[in-house]
Design goal:
The structure is a homodimer. The radius of gyration of chain A is 19 Å and the shape is globular. Chain A is built from 6 helices and 2 strands, in the order ααααββαα. In chain A, strands 1-2 form a two-stranded antiparallel ribbon. Helices cover about 65% and strands about 5% of the residues of chain A. Chain A is mainly alpha-helical. Chains A and B meet through α1, α5 and α6 of A and α1, α5 and α6 of B. Chain B binds a DNA duplex through α4.
Chain lengths: ~160, ~160
DNA sequence: CAGCAACAATTGCAATCGCAACAAATTGCG
DNA sequence: CGCAATTTGTTGCGATTGCAATTGTTGCTG
């Protein structure tokens, strides 16, 4: 009955959170996706672009341009994959570690302030609900995407 | 302590929901914003573009182009505001009502399926938490936006 | 009434991102 | 081995959106 109210609230809060994050990250010359990538990356262990795209829930082409930008900022370094000449390994530079540390401090301060309106028990409930929702929506997407990209068949 | 987990889950679910909605709305040649606009509009009572932008949480320029598109699809009509030559009034056409009805049926079916993993009590809790979060984040944005856009002053 | 600030809508521009097409490299199967 | 299918990353293109500047209108104030 309140499904729709949940949905609208969730949608609106998404927009607001995106906007608020942009305001925070702007001073570090990062957008949300770039920041999330920095969080994942590591100075030692190199990530492949394809793995980054799967983790960040975006297209490979988006990761290409994301990596182009972070590289131009000197925050990451591309290096060839020793075992596969198609692949590249992306690692954090010292500047990347520093920039991530600054941005992370600002973002996590903001996050903490926002979620301080919930108590510990509520957070647990929220996490549990969000996980269940994530599972359903993931399944819905998987179902829809295996349905259309192939099989223009309608076979007998 | 779990603030960050909440946040990441929320962010990920936002991406998934956006993606899932796009898959549903694509068949009606609408994106999420266009659909939300159709929900607001009415065959009789005309909306001003500025009011739409505030309701949809986007820029006025975005609404201009949104209305351009919906008009080109024949779903809405622009008419001059009788009392103010600066304004325009936007109303739903019959085709707009029909398109909205189809899209709404599909979307609400999907929403209902997604939120069926929560029971009534959980939905109430979720709504309450989302409302509190919305309030904090709104306040945060308002604070940040009144801080920077003006006052490059640092006066004596 | 003249001037000016505020407001409605639009346009230009840049940033962002998904999708499709592509080149290079790798894998697998006959 | 040899060739087809798959995989990795890139590029072209279009769609979407925010921000700043602009035009035309309104309303307030001296």
């Amino acid at each position: 009955m309140e499904d729709y109210q949940d949905y609208r609230l969730f949608q609106e809060l998404s927009l607001l959170l995106d906007h608020a994050d942009r305001l925070v990250l702007r001073q570090f010359r990062l957008n949300t996706l770039q920041y999330n990538a920095l969080l994942l990356l590591d100075p030692d262990e190199g990530w492949r672009l394809t793995d980054l795209s799967e983790r960040l829930l975006c297209e490979r082409s988006t990761v290409t341009r994301l990596v182009d930008y972070l590289e131009s900022e000197g925050l990451i370094a591309r290096s060839p994959d020793p075992g596969d000449r198609r692949s590249q390994r992306v690692t954090l530079t010292a500047a990347g570690v520093a920039r991530r540390r600054e941005a992370q401090a600002a973002i996590e301060e903001a996050i903490h302030r926002r979620f301080s309106v919930l108590n510990g028990e509520e957070e647990q409930q929220l996490i549990a609900m969000l996980k269940r929702l994530r599972a359903v929506v993931s399944a819905e997407i998987a179902e829809k995407e295996t349905a259309s990209p192939e099989a223009s068949s309608t076979p007998s």
